[in-house]
Amino acid sequence: MTRTMPVPTRRRFALRLLAALAAALAPFVATPPAARAQPQREAGSSITLASTTSTEQSGLFGHILPLFTRQTGIAVRVVALGTGQALDVARRGDADAVLVHDAAAEQRFVAEGHGIDRRAVMYNDFVLIGPAADPAGIAGMPDAAAAMRRIAQARALFISRGDRSGTHTAELALWRAVGLDPAAAVREAGGGWYRAIGQGMGPALNAAAAQDAYVLSDRGTWLSFRNRRTLRVLVEGDPRLRNPYSVILVNPARHPHVRQAEARAFADWLVSPEGQRAIADYRIGGEQLFFPDAAAPASRSTARAE
Amino acid sequence: MEDFDAAFAIAIGMIGSADPALLEIVVLSLKVSAAAVLLAALVGLPLGALLAVARFPGRRAVVVALNALMGLPPVVAGLAIYLLLSRSGPLGELGLLFTPGAMVLAQAVLIAPILAALARQVLEGLWEEYAEQLRSFGAGPWRAVPSLLFDGRFALSTVLLAGFGRASAEVGAVMIVGGNIEGFTRVMTTAIALETSKGNLPLALALGVVLMAIVLTVNAAVQVLRDAAARRAA
Fold first, then answer.
1. What is d(CA A24, CA B33) in angstroms, rounded to the nearest whole number?
2. In which domain, by residue range, is B91 found?
3. Which residues, at least 6 apart from B122, have a Cβ–Cβ distance to it below 8 Å?
4. What is the ipTM, given to two decimal places?
5. How far is B215 from chain A (nearest CA, A)?
6. Mutating which of A227, A228, A231, A251 best tests the B interface, going by the most B Cβ atoms within 10 A?
């Protein structure tokens, strides 16, 4: 037993270990979970917003959320995912509100009783990006769907998000508009031109930049994207490229723990003149990224499915 | 090489200016990974010691399972914990999802098998040296576990460092259960993933350089402490 310790030393060692553990874990249990689960509205409260990578990575939230928090004391914690995933998170009750861009999926979400009070907030637009060499020759085409068909005919490399995001859904709608099904094309010989990467907008742009491929992007992410290499905007302005965003509250009847009052305060602020102005004010290099849409005369409000 | 030069320049600038946003991310990374190591050690080290001393039917199967769990893909662990902690999951009441607590849990689950498997390896050798002595004192395997853990503490600090390294380098699981929320659950690895997504490659690489500098510092600090402790014990 030369090196085996005496019992008191061992006890001290164990105590020290326990103290270290307590110290390390303390920050995470400081707020009792039961207290956090209670809906409460006071300074220092917070909501979880499931949103899209386009709103987060374009820097919009960094611009508008501090304004809202300063006014109300409500912190907004943004989990940025693809629209499909963001709606899944909300469906499980893990968010208090969503801000997403896929009208059909949003309507389904509300119709199934997961969300309430869907409201139009803003829009931006998609742009068709490609290498400067433009092997499919689509630069300047006014019709985005026709441009997509030309890419398919040229079998030019195309990067698809492939992740059920709002952008992915928009891309699939464009293919459908010209009667193409790239998923089927991939299974045929020579279908390798279509590459679904199953990742966010940034990674898709990175992939396109590395391979001189075409890709559909929302304008916000594109404008704030740094690693462009030879990529540039080739097609824009087609009305079909409009990209509207809505805010939806998670249904408290289904998930009683959601912070309904705070989430509603946030949604109300987004569509208020003040929130709308904050959205309009956000610019990158002088270019406006998002266009307020809340006051638009029932354009999409008719789609409300409560 | 321009990218690398730019990255190092940015990294040095960030460390030099002690950028508060970066500091916050660094502190959270350290806290989460340290807590995860301690939590995992609480389970993993005694388990490893027990496997080193005890002989029971099925022991080999447990050892093989532990070794295999070392390869548990972080994304799978993250997904499992996400489903457990989700409001619609069995532990939803805790409200832990998208909090640092969830990240601690995810990292602990990932590294506990590593700590247990490595501790078993280290302590088995020690046990072979001491088995006779401890038995002559009438200590059964249960009594031997604490003694073995204490005697092996210097070797085990390396095991803990391996766990810390894996925990702080992990991105898949903490991204899923933490949500990479700015100012709340954003750690070094998820920040790097985010900057990569934004195409801000030099900044992402610079954050990687900072992360490595931190891990290096932690390792060096533990080395110094261990040497000091070993000198005092001798």
1. 9
2. 2-233
3. B48, B152, B155, B156, B159
4. 0.84
5. 18
6. A227
